[in-house]
Amino acid sequence: MYYGLHDPDNVFEVLSPQHQGQQGPPPGGDDSDQQDAAIDSDEQWQPYIECADVLTGHHTAWPVTKVLIDPKFELVWCGRVSGQVTSYKLGERGTSLQKYSSFRISNTAPVIDILSHNDGILCLAEDSLQFRMRGGAPLIVSNADKRSRLCAIGVSSSYRSNQAVVGLAHSQSLVVELGRGTVCSRFELERDPKTIKFAPNSELMYTMTVMGILSVRDPRIGFQQLNWIKAFDVTALSMDIVGNYLAVCGCSEWGTPVRPDRAIKIYDLRRMDANPLVVKCVDGPGFLKADPLTSSQMFVGYYDGHIELRDCPPTTTDQAGTGDGGVQDFTIAVVNLPNRLSAVTCMDVSPSGDVAMFGDNHGILHIWSATDSPTLNLNPIDPLLPHIKGTVGGSGSEAALLVDDPHMSFSDCPLINYDRPELLLSHPRVDDVFDVAKPLPQIDPALLASMQVSDFVGYVKNPRQRLRNQATFPPGWRKKWLSEAPDKEDSFNQTEEGPVVPLLHSEQRRRQIQGRYWSGYHQSHPSNVSGANSSSAPNTRPTSATARTRSQSGLVPPHLQKVTIQYSKFGIEDFDFGFYNQTRYGGLESHLPNSYCNALLQTLFFAEGYRELAMAHALTSCRSKDCVLCELGFLFCMLKDSKGRNCHAGNLLKVVAQRPEAHALGIIEPKIASTKTPYGTLVQTANRFFLERTAKELRDQQDLVERLFGFMITTATPCPCGAVKEMSVHRYAVELEDSEGSAGLASLLSGGVASVNRITKQVRSFCDQLKSSLQNSTVTRAWCSSCRKYQMITTSKRLAALPLAHFAVNCPIRQPAHSTAATTSNAASMKSGSRLSFNLSDTGGDGRSAVSPMAFNDHSFGSTSVKNELRMRHWLLPSIRIGIDDKGEVHVSPHNDNSSGSGETGGKSERQGEVRDKGRDDDRTQYGVEEGEIYDLHAVIVEIRVSPTLPARLVAYIRMPPRDGGENTSWYVFNDFLVQKIDQSEVFDFSPPWKRPAVIYFTRRGSPVIPAAIDATRETGERIDVNAVFNAPPVNKPKHLRPTDKVVPLSEEELRQLKPGYRCAIDAEFVKLASAEAEIHSDKSALPYQTEKIPILARLSVIRGMPGPLYGVPFIDDYIATRDPILDYVSDISGIHKGDLDPTTSSYELHQFKDTYRKLRHLISSGCTLIGHGLGNDFRTINIIAPPAQVLDTVKLYSSPTHSRLISLRFLTWSILHRNIQDGQHSSVEDAKATLELYDKYQSLADCGMLEDVLDDVYDKGHIFNWRPPSDDIGPAAAAPTPPVAPSST
Q1: Measured torsion, CA atoms of residues 506, 511, 517, 518, in degrees rounded to the nearest 10
Q2: Which EC numbers does the record give (predicted)?
Q3: Which residues lie below 8 Å from residue 930, measured CB to CB, with a gap of 6+?
């Protein structure tokens, strides 16, 4: 509300920012009435008083163009038309300004913007950008030429705050590194940007141009434009971010003069659509400033001095106005301008809300204060000021630079004497001292004396006194370095200095060539580099005792911590995966979306029967495009052939993400994982999804999956009237009972003999929990349709039949409850996200210790008791016995014998089990479960939470069967691509608070279903129609078929020849897709953006390599159909053009990716030898693995041990075969033929002993021609010695 003058001194009473949004008296009446009404209406209102009007320059010809209240120090910054920037310290009661520093950034251009930074102040003019300390000392001074007019500047408070974005007038912007004063990058931006803002709650950048265009850009992807809106047709005036909204004002209509729109447009940052909310105003606003104390209001300034406080987003009153068609007045202040020709040019509000500053076109700063002792910041920090004495009047007080007389000359001011002359304003403060780079070493004066200068560049002969890029170490450095090296045994551990990471393959190869290969790994901290390992064994692993000691001490062992892939310019293949896996089992990479399923996929792979079922189905002619079981079979084939190499489940996870059931079940991993991401619950649901989905896709053999993993639960609901309803449900997992005493409570309510004392002291061992999960009763009041009235009905659930093969147990995972005894820090850590929460009953009904992983519901990380830790080490059992007696009762008991395979430490574990389960034999005899079945622990998927502030992760413990007829089994941990053999005691130890079970798998001993499933898959493999696989129909029928290389399908005779020894050459072409990702907002809306280019298969060609009339003729030349948006066709490399892969427009016969993949899978499974160039990269992109014995790669065949460079196919063909390829249109068939000829040539050269001489000649030519064949015809210089070709015996 606007309040009129209430005293003759022209002091205005306004609404304080601390009480924004309260209604005041209506306008009208005399001044005294308004004042009385303002005072009587609410005693809490505080007056906003215009304290002073300060002239900032020597005369009124220098208008104020920018005012900024420093958010860090108690300073006010003022920029003027003259290019001068001055800072002031606010005096007491806000009635004066004391000059602190002053400097000029331009002689010809006005100050455009001033921004605060932790290290100084950024000042911008049209021809200059300066970064200075607050005392005035320059850090960066950059002057722009006439062609590069500077327009706007912005700095993010969170994302790379040491970089500033500078907008230029000619559609370009610069990213300036403030620490070094260099330009990091450039990107295209709209012309004439006026304002650049970074949203405080996100990493997005919002810009507004002079022509009224708003745009949204993401700095994380090179400042790519995500969205843009034309907000105003003429020009934009002001923009600011208010919470989750963007407020802008400007002009939309031409006129004489151009007037601002009488409205403010409000855009939701979470959507940024073209339909904004509109706030109606009395006049056209020119300035917008977010309220620093709230996130829902803003100050609106007008050129005539009126100031309003409006809601953002607007209320109904703000949008509709008054009932008579007018607009409600929200004025809170009117700036006292000198005359009618004056206008407000800028405004700012202090972060504390106590002070507001307004600048006008007469060079005057108007100071407004809401308190008697105003401060600019909530935590005020006063800048360093010298003590001034001897001022006018001899009072000894500080001399204020407040100028009341606009005609006063500063030459009349007296000189200032200082008590400490060393503390001048130019004296550097301690806070302004910062580290700089180490100075360059001095050059030998003898070299400088012999240096020759040409065009300002000095030249001198290199004396080669030391190697390039190596510094000189002081004497004794080697002894000190060796003494600080880590211990060999713990070299793989996560130390305080940093994790051990392997050297890249390129670095290993470079060191091998240079003869100074020290070790296969390095550590992130320079003091942790040890060179004790050889190239043959580049890493060492910690012993089981070391890992167990770290686990007991509360530290997460290194093999359970997150492992990260390191990238280089050579791609992901340059990473040494073998450093993390020296076993014969393949690992899975973790850089893909939904890769949390890796632990589950490894568990399913080692489930006998299911693995063979999926692999057999994958080789059938299944035509379903998104068959999950086919992709599972392809993945299992890769894991089987990997022999310790890394794999990735990219194709499978992509198909899963396309299934609507996966989205309905909520198993899609969020883009950014947090502490609240329930990975334990996700993997339980994913297990159900995979089993249910694959059972449906088997169709005729659906019962096989149900018999392998499922079991029947019978639910009976008897009514007292005698009516009984029964229903059988097929389950794939047992939900482990979590609540204490639920079964006893049901028994009590149904008239049983249970007592409260017995309920509260139930045995909560694993067997008792499993029993209560397989058989329980609940009492509810429900409607009976037989007796037609409400009855207390007992619903009982019981296991109808024992599981035949595998069965899963889902451990309870829920948000932990707060304990009254928990400390504040523990409660805060428990709030950080979902994790396993366990309950514990101290003793059972028979006096035995009750052991349950629910023991930690009231404990946070590291706060479990020693008693609970000892119990949790023996909660899980290696073997259990499940039986059903004659009455249908389910009984579960431990089973201890040596036949379950206890591994290397089996004897010790069994002896502990005998002591722990003493008396169980009597229970088995009493319950009559001697005829029950024994189930051995097969796998455990555990959730690892290293810290309450980091997301959880999943690893799998899997028991491997004995090898070579042995008796002992062994346990392995699968942590993505880290695979390691472990001691079985680690599997059963759940005493650490960071380790919780999620899914437990048991396998029935002597199961009759597993051999039957294997036999069924063998029969399926015998019925596979290979001819139908290699002759799968295309997905389209083009009207005008484009002529391609002649493809001759494999005949029946050739199909029978597909066996070990059959050679064929292969080549593939790829295009690149854009990986579409989205930023999810609070209202569940998504803002999509593109991140990286992902290659996908576009064409696959396979030609015959066996001698005969069809030698070199292709039998596979498939173009792959895709409907995904292709970002880059790379036509100069792939030969694929726009529209070639679209089934609706392509002139080629297109095939499904799965059909082509299955053909290649059949060749590998048949034992065929594949010849190609760079097959490692091609196979990785296709997501397939072939045994090394079946791959002949000409990249490796034509590589020299004395050279690190790998030669391209084009250069090899030119230098070895004396012809050019890949000229103009590329063809994968041509490349495959060249590869086949290179292999034949390699055999001839190797047989004649000329291979090394030819390789040296090829490398010499490569250095001469820069590894590019000349464009002219092959001359004599390019010809390599041609040995006589030996006749082939195959």
Answers
A1: -80
A2: 3.1.13.4
A3: 883, 924
Cα 74 from Cα 71, distance rounded (Å):
8
Distance CA 630, CA 8 (A): 88
Average pLDDT over residues 118-141: 90
Looking at the chain, the whole-number percentage of residues with pLDDT higher than 70 is 70
DSSP 925-985: HHHT-TTSEEEEEEEEEEEE-S-TTS--EEEEEEEEPPSTT-S--EEEEEETTEEEEE-HH
Q: By the 8 A CB rule, do 258 and 305 touch?
A: no
DSSP-derived letter for residue 546 is H
pTM as predicted: 0.57
CA 303 to each of CA 300, 326, 337, 341: distance values in angstroms, whole numbers, following the listed order: 10, 21, 10, 10
Alpha helices of 441-504 — where are they, by DSSP H?
Answer: 445-449, 477-483
Chain position carrying tokens 């509360």 = 554
CA distance 31 to 35: 6
- CB-based contacts of 1161: which residues, under 8 Å, 6+ apart? 618, 619, 634, 637, 1184
Q: Is 777 helix (H, G, I), strand (E, B) or coil?
A: strand
Scan for tokens 């006026």, then name that residue: 194
* Residues belonging to the chain: 1290
Q: Is the pLDDT of residue 973 over 90?
A: yes
Write the pLDDT tens digit of every residue in 169-204.
Answer: 888 889 988 887 888 888 888 888 999 999 877 778
Question: Taking the CA atoms of the chain, what radius of gyration do you get in angstroms?
Answer: 39
Cα 971 from Cα 986, distance rounded (Å): 9
CB 172 within 8 A of CB 189: yes
**C-alpha pair distances (Å), 961 with each of 148, 451, 600, 1146:** 72, 73, 18, 51
3-state SS class at 35 = helix
Task: Give the pLDDT score at 754.
Answer: 36
Pair 419, 387: CB distance under 8 Å? yes
What is the C-alpha to C-alpha distance for residues 923 and 704, in angstroms, rounded to an integer? 34
- What pLDDT shows up at residue 1164? 92
Tell me how crowded residue 414 is: count the other CB atoms within 10 A of its CB: 9
- Which H/E stretch holds residue 796? strand 789-799
Residue 1191 CA to residue 1168 CA, distance in Å, equals 9
Q: Alpha-carbon distance 848 to 1253, whole Å?
A: 80
The DSSP result for 1019-1061, as a single string, is: HHHHT--HHHHHTPPPS---SSPPP-S---PPPHHHHHT-STT
What is the CB neighbour count within 10 angstroms for residue 166? 24
**Cis ω for the linkage preceding 257 (within 30 of 0):** yes
* CA–CA gap between residue 833 and residue 227 (Å, rounded): 33
Token pair, residue 818, equals 């707060």
Q: Which two tokens stand for residue 527?
A: 């003091």
Tokens of 251: 């002009």
